[in-house]
Write a structure and sequence with these properties.
mainly beta; three-stranded antiparallel sheet
Amino acid sequence: MPLVQGSGAGGGSVPNTVNYPNGAGGYYVDQVTYANGGSFTVKQKAQYIEDNWQVTPNILLNLGLRNDQFTNYDASGDAYIKETSPQWAPRLGVSWDIFGDSSAKLYANVGRYYLALPSGLGSRTASASTFTDQYFTYSSIDANGVPHGLTAIPATVTPFSADGEIGAARDAKTLASSDLKPEYQDEFVLGFQKLLGDTGLVWTSQATYSKMNDIVDDTGAVTMPADADPASFNGDILVNPGRTNTVRYKKLDGSYGTYKWDPATAVGATSVVGFPKAERKYYSLEESLEHPWDGKWMGKIDYVFSKSYGTTEGPTDSVLGQISSAQPGGGGQSGSITEAWDYPELMQYSNGELPNSHRHTLKAYGTYAVTPEWLVSGIYIIQSGAPNTCLGYWGPDQVNAGYGQAYHWCGGVPSAPGKSGHAPWTHQLNLSVNYIPEWAGKHLSFQMQIHNVLNEQNITQYYTEFGSTQVDPDTGLPKVNPRYKTPLAQEAPRYVQFSVKYDW
């Protein structure tokens, strides 16, 4: 079967290895070249007004309005992202002292929150970055695993970069859609708090709902217009995946043109049309019972039922390890350039329970003053496991459509996030002892912490890739990857930490 470039610089087909020396077995190596650098700046401005209004003796309103502006600059000092239009973020809070004696309170908060794009985004997006693939057959591998006798596939093609990262400076005016909107979410909170008689206990019940409205990520699913200069056309651009964007490009005559890019009609590498809606929603219900600190002890039991779901986490992709994505595989200092929105195939069947969703969390913690100088503390956290994700080659025929095993298909069957079970529950017990001597005027403190006292080491994340790079000769399809659902991450073993702190 023909080979297809994988999830490095990705994209494009290469001929079958049998046509090249030492390629009869189908084995090949990929030489990845990656380099970038530079100094990048983000300018943030905000204006904020707030007022607390005691409407009645029992009702307090907290009113706020914030306006944010964000500008990102490339290594040459040119702005490639300007999110400077008014971005109003209203905040409203209300608190009702039901009986007027602070024994029972009903409260609610509504707010909008904008997020700036990090400066590290420029190292991949706005620099003279190099990220290329070149494929070779080989005649042997030495004891250190280094292949020898390399033959390029095909021999006449130079290293390939799907995103045009070949070490050349980029035009700041074409790196992002000209009407790019900032990332933001809306959050709603409703709660009730009650003092339980003379017990000193406080019961709190709180519901939270948040909804992401816009994200920023890069996409390669843009079409080069007929009048565009192919030498300078940027095939990878920052967009809002959930809305129509205005793409700016440089024409053959040196001027700039624009066209409207609609993610719902974007064509992928296999003619799959359209991205799903960019969506992330979170809800939770929290119940807690607390004994506030009274000079001798405090304690709290807290239970949270929650769920996070949608088509995207936002600026990260935890399943693929792209927590920050200034470098391939997420090893850099930036987000918002995950591979999720590169092509529509990657987002097929992506709607489901997100990787950071833990449906049940129970916490019990407290502090006790043995003497005025010695305090002991502990926290016990029981939490349900994160959802598993099964990723594989694309479609029922398990085709490598350019990104290897990064598609929401599992053995040729659609596989939405969270449909492959969950990781095990975890039970973390942490204890600490604090010594705050009187002779130092309570400014000096010594602390010893024991983390994971029970030394539990349950799995927290599994390997997600279902298919392997080897093909079953009977079916012509990829074999099941032996690493699938093997541990990728687990709880850290028990360890002790000592610290000394002095407060001026």
